[in-house]
Design goal:
By secondary structure, this protein is α+β, with helices and mostly antiparallel strands. Helix content is about 25%, strand content about 25%. It has three helices and 17 strands. The strands form six sheets. Strands 13-14-6-5-12-15 form a six-stranded antiparallel beta sheet, with no helix packed on it. A hairpin with a 4-residue loop joins β9 and β10. The longest helix is centred in the C-terminal third of the chain and has 36 residues, at about 245-280.
Amino acid sequence: MVKGLYTAYTGMVNEQKRMDIETNNLANVNSTGFKEERSVSQSFRDLLALKIKDYSDAPWTARRLGLMNPGVKLAGTYTNFEQGALRQTGQTYDLALNNGLPDVDDDSVNDNMSAGGNAFFATSFASDDPDGGGQLIKYTRDGNFTLTLDGYLVTSEGNNVLDVNNNPIQLDPTMDATINQDGTIVQNFNVVSTIQVARFDNPQFLQRYQDNAFIIGEGGAQVISTTAAEANATVNQGYLESSNISVVDEMVNIISIQRNYETNSKVMQAEDDTIDIAVNQLGRIQ
């Protein structure tokens, strides 16, 4: 294949994948606790440098450039775990985790988006994985919880919210509840449970599960603490965490991707014109 065509093709495929990621971010701008996904592209130059130094498949063998295809590819994606702004709802079981933002009573709370969000609520859900015993744990920043008729604290999907011992939290549905910033739940002046706030050594190894939840995959992420105090976080009753998506940034990225796609399309058209001239004019027998 003509290398110019392949180079333009890889560029168009790369931009299409980036567009999928950006549009998914934009679609979740109003999803509670959603964390932005970002992508990293890898150029031919970077791949070539790695390939030249890679002796794993053919040690001490000279490598021919002709066997490699120039272009670009999506190297991978990662999650931006920055803290989202807190939005007051006043609902008893709406909870938001705060990792380093100013106090919720501070007027600047909605302006600070720079702190990290390395702490999660733990919820259980049914799984088809036979090795998981039918139940796995999802980790989420979405604190839009409700109380069932029999007193279980559940997510909007009906999954149980877990305490620090990985047990479902059950309260007395006939009594009022106060949830303190350390995650303790108080009913009738007694602490009846403590909400788990899981902190990870490296959240980038978490595997995204659906849009605003994560599970421990094969990357090796480990829970290093289960309380709000150990996670350096606070649990804020009557608040929800907004997504950390910036609509303006996403729109700028989408425009940039569209222009890159158009540029690669023009390169492909130019290559096609060159081939046309070579075949139909230069190669024509008079």
